[in-house]
Amino acid sequence: MSGKKQISGYHQGSVDTVLSVDAVTREAEALAEERPDRAALWALADDAPLVTIENLVAGYGAMEILHGVDLAVGRGQSLCLIGPNGAGKSTILHSIYGFTTISAGTISIGGRDVTREKPNRKLSHSGVAYILQDNSVFPDMTVRENLLMGGYLMESPQLAAQKADQVLEKYERLAARANQPARVLSGGERRLLEISRALVMDPQVLLVDEPSIGLEPRFIDMVFEILTDLQHRDGKTIIMVEQNARKGLEFADIGYVLVAGQVAIAQKGDDLLENPDVGRLFLGG
What homologous superfamily is domain 21-276 in, according to CATH? Predict the structure, then answer.
């Protein structure tokens, strides 16, 4: 190995299929030359999108990350965003929820412009919940107390308690530990608690940032089973960023490849899995 340049790879694959991050970015930029138009994106949402983004220019302070992004996802659909590091995937979630500086474009939910709404209003009035990628449980609070925190914008503590109990009824794994401190939970159970806390407000849209990050494979499967149930049984619309591109695309109805703050490719999730360029760059061969 001496004398060879050490490179960092992207996701999965054997050593024969690993590409450097820089190489992935360069080759992915070539894919962006023929970006999908708005009509194609709307068609993937069955021409009846619940969440739409049009010509979004956004970033953090003076740093512009997104350069004219369009997006459409229908009610009860799931969308997974993949792409190189720094492509703007999480920035899309941040923008929808109100965490970025937006200089142009619109974000709509159910046909209503929510571009300038603050996060609290997005959650309480527009039905949008954000599930962070970081470990955000309160370890010294009980599982039930963590759930109660999810209802902090409700009209009364009694209503929040009622909703928290309904969530506990849904997930026996959490109910069994309702009165135990959250620090005793496994990694997968903590992620379940984070998801469940977001459900207390009964959102219609879930923004899910890296649900598999830091989890063992058996817990990753559990989390995706929960998300599948929320989409198909409860009718939630899910917009996700996922580091494990294969897992994310296997889950999602729609997949977008982001490159340099723009949508380079948009197809059904299954079709992206079969796309040779996507496979070579993001799926390990």
Answer: P-loop containing nucleotide triphosphate hydrolases (3.40.50.300)
